[in-house]
Amino acid sequence: FPSMDFLECKICHIPYDEEDHRPRNAPCGHELCTACLGAIIKDSIFECPKCRQKHIVKIPDDLPVSFGLIDVIRAFKSKSIPLPKETEPSTPGATNEEVCNMHGKSLDHWCYKCQFWICKECLDSHTTLVGCSTTTSTNAIKDIKDKHLKNIDMLLNNCE
Description:
The chain is an alpha+beta fold. Helices cover about 30% and strands about 15% of the residues. It has a single domain, classed as Herpes Virus-1 (2-Layer Sandwich), CATH 3.30.40.
């Protein structure tokens, strides 16, 4: 699968979850997990490790949870799409866990209608099905991310 770095903390590189590694939004727009945020806050000051902006933050819970990102993670789990692991390579075909049962090839295309991953070998025969529309895994993940970012923007606009 393509790089899914946005699903892991940029500090500890552990995949986000809904417990100790909940994604939090810093005021500067960067995300990091609750555990790393707790380790970085010194004297109620948080200095973003990405942009070095300083923010007044007493405890990690003072920063909002990135619910959009949690929704993406839940979507992956509900479709049984494997999330990145600390030791798992993020390049297509680098693991033998996500391979086509028929061809042994990497599952690198997504069918929007059928809602499952297929390999490139299955792509031609699959797209002849009426109404099926497929895309690469990179585009599918981007579409999911964009959809959730759009929902976040709409929610933020409603709060203003």
